[in-house]
Amino acid sequence: MKAFDYACSTDPHQVAAALHVPGTAIVAGGTEILNWMRLGIAAPDRLIDIDGLTGATDVRVDANHLSVGAGVTLNAVGENTQVRQYAHVLAEACLQAASAQVRNRATLGGNVLQKTRCAYFRSEDPLPWPCNKRNAGTGCAARSGSNERHAIFGWMDACVAVQPSDPAVALACLDAEAVVISARGERSVALTQFHFTQEEAASAGGDPAQLETRLGADDVIVRYRIPLRPGSRSAYVKVRERASYEYALVSAAAAVELDGDRIRSARIALGSVAQRPWRLVEAEARLRGMRLARDAIDTALHGAMGAARPLARNGYKIMLAHNAARRALLLAGGLA
Amino acid sequence: MNQNRPSSATSRDLTWSRQVRVALTVNGRQFSDTVPARVTLLDWLREGAGLTGTKKGCNEGACGTCTVLIDGRRMNACLTLLAQCQGRSVTTVEGIAGPDGTLHPVQQAFIEHDALQCGYCTPGQVVSAVACIAEGHATDESSVREWMSGNVCRCSCYPQITAAVLDAAKRIGDKAQGGAS
Question: What is the number of domains present in chain A?
């Protein structure tokens, strides 16, 4: 890890101003950036510590929103009574992420900015293989390599990585917005739009392997706003190779509002299938008015998963994601 | 050593330093040191404070053997800069036993349940277990396994560790209720 200059600030505007200087990065929990610096994924000249950032440290209910500070740790989000009541899927996703120790450091703000777990990407400099995310123009070793854990939606030959965050999947399911401060003022970014797939990055004129989010270099996430939907219930299903402390093979977040046994509205987001949380908008529309039952769910999901483009080694993710989504919907509706 | 140089007109109020002066409490004792900003709490505990009980395993947050309590919460010391510990209270495995050397119920239970083989993960397991019990998560086997999953034991003593944590939780609970110890 190369030497860097360090400063602390609790003023989001001051942090945004500091980020204008190239080579400046934020440290909050530190669970990602310290490892990036060790591997050579990032090499900032200056690190600004935003512990205690104004407006980012609490959970509260505003008029029509649950508002969660970006500086709140994953354990604190997961065990918060209001989060468990109004955004159950977010609490579950937070507590199924990482380990108890990591969750006491990692913040909800930093979590959605974590980078892919692709093993070709997460190696120490100098990389012995091509990786367009690390070294633009070198190629993608995973495209024709060990791509069991890679994307089935939205990828390009240039990069097949997925975003591994659990909380991001829950936030996208809940139609959450990130409240972001920069020199241009404050704005909101929907979590369904926050990350780019490789295809979306290319469409936006960026490098498909390197442009990962809509955040600018001086953007600071301060809070998340989650619309309150009385009567909506939600659940998170994370499928992984061991029961705890493991990244998802796939995950599914679901929220349903029921009218008797009929679905008034359903929202489903898949995780670890693309470089962003993957909302199943068409399936959600098909489920409206249907009975919450296995057959109707399977019919609705079938079309959504039919659009998947598996790689050589990850075809299993299609059925796994389908089944995870069904289970999340049934759990949310109290039927599993 | 502080450079205290303004880095840009817009952030002139910030003080950027390559060397940071940090005052913190470790196991009840006051420490103050000036270190490069990149020094982690883990490296400083072992090399600066001479407290080598906290072990360096993966150095990336994956194994949990560097687990310490910071203001009472368990965290990975390898994922924490010493600079982030300004004014905080840190407890390492050396601070778990009583001042007279009386073992903590968790330490006693680890011995009695034979919850270690090579012992390299044990300091992290003990500190993590103390927190796990204090958090109220040591209620049954599956809860202990879930909430202790951040501490890897490559000798695979998990059944014994789980039993020790549950037994220690019971002893601590009995003591809190004034029952026979």
Answer: 2
Q: What are phi and psi of A218, to 5 degrees?
A: -110, 20
The predicted pLDDT at position B13 comes to 78
Give residues with Cβ within 8 angstroms of B44, minimum separation 6.
Answer: B33, B35, B82
Residue contact B7–A105, C-beta within 8 A? no
- Look at residue A84 and tell me if it is in a domain: no
Sign, Cα dihedral of B147, B66, B116, B120: positive
CA–CA separation, A146 and A142 (whole Å): 6
pLDDT at B178: 72
Chain A CB contacts of B18 under 8 Å are 3-6
- A100 contacts in chain B (CB < 8 Å): 74, 128, 131-132, 135, 137, 147-150
| Nearest residue in chain A measured CA to CA from B147 | A100
| Cβ atoms < 10 Å from Cβ of B8 | 12
A201 inside domain: no
Per the domain annotation, does A72 fall within a domain? no
Predicted local confidence at residue B175, as pLDDT: 85
**A151, pLDDT greater than 90:** yes
Residue B140's pLDDT is 98
Cβ contact, residue pair B14, A48, below 8 Å? yes
CATH class of B105-176: mainly alpha
Instruction: Give residue limits of the domains in chain B.
Output: 16-95, 105-176
B139 inside 8 A of chain A by CB: no
CB A169 within 8 A of CB A271: yes
Mean pLDDT value across residues A127-139:
98
CA distance A61 to A64: 7
Determine the CATH number of domain B16-95. Answer: 3.10.20.30
Q: How many CB atoms lie within 10 A of CB A128?
A: 8
Q: How high does pLDDT run on average in chain B?
A: 93
Question: Which residues does chain A have within 8 Å of residue B10's beta carbon, measured at their own beta carbons?
Answer: 17-18, 20, 183
Model ipTM value:
0.97
In a domain, residue A176? The reply is: no
Chain B, nearest residue to A99 by Cα: B150
- Whole domain around residue A303: which residue ranges? 232-332
To the nearest whole Å, the CA of B103 is away from the closest chain A CA by 23
Return the CATH number at A313: 3.30.390.50
pLDDT tens digit sequence for A27-75: 999 999 999 999 999 999 999 999 999 999 999 999 899 999 999 999 9
